């Protein structure tokens, strides 16, 4: 039994030493690579700008659309004549 314990202890020491050495080598290599490699911003070109998402109508455009709808309703109700409708429509679209 003492020979078995001695063998297990020796194996544990060897394995522990190997792990410690391996970890130290890994840390040293990582340190060297960090010194050699440029910073990520320098290494790669900046990504291209993303395509703009289709924009919702501008607030003034949506208000113009609402005004045109109201004008159309007034024309349908007979409140506005065709000429008055055309004049008001041009004012809204050119503003």
Describe the structure.
The chain is an all-alpha fold and 95 residues long. Helix content is 75%, strand content 0%. It is built from four helices and no strands. The protein has helices at residues 2-36, 40-43, 59-77, 82-94. The N and C termini lie far apart (100 Å). The mean pLDDT is 76. Residues 66-93 form the SHOCT domain. This is SHOCT domain-containing protein. Residues 34-44 have a biased composition (Low complexity). Residues 21-65 are annotated as: Disordered.
Strand residue content: under 5%
Report the major sheet.
Answer: none
Total count of helical runs of at least 4 residues? 4
Q: pLDDT below 50 for ≥5 consecutive residues: which ranges?
A: none
The total beta strand count reads 0
Structure summarized in a few sentences:
The chain has 95 residues and is mostly helical.
Features:
95 residues; 0% strand; SHOCT
Topology:
Blueprint: H1 2-36, H2 40-43, H3 59-77, H4 82-94
Helix pairs in contact: 3-4
């Amino acid at each position: 039994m003492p020979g078995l314990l001695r063998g297990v202890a020796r194996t544990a020491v060897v394995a522990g030493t190997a792990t410690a050495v391996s970890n130290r080598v890994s840390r040293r290599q990582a340190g060297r690579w960090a010194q050699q490699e440029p910073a990520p911003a320098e290494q790669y070109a900046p990504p291209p700008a993303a395509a703009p998402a289709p924009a919702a109508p501008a607030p003034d455009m949506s208000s113009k659309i609402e005004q045109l709808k109201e004008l159309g309703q007034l024309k349908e109700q007979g409140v506005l004549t065709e000429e008055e409708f055309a004049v008001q429509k041009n004012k809204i679209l050119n503003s």
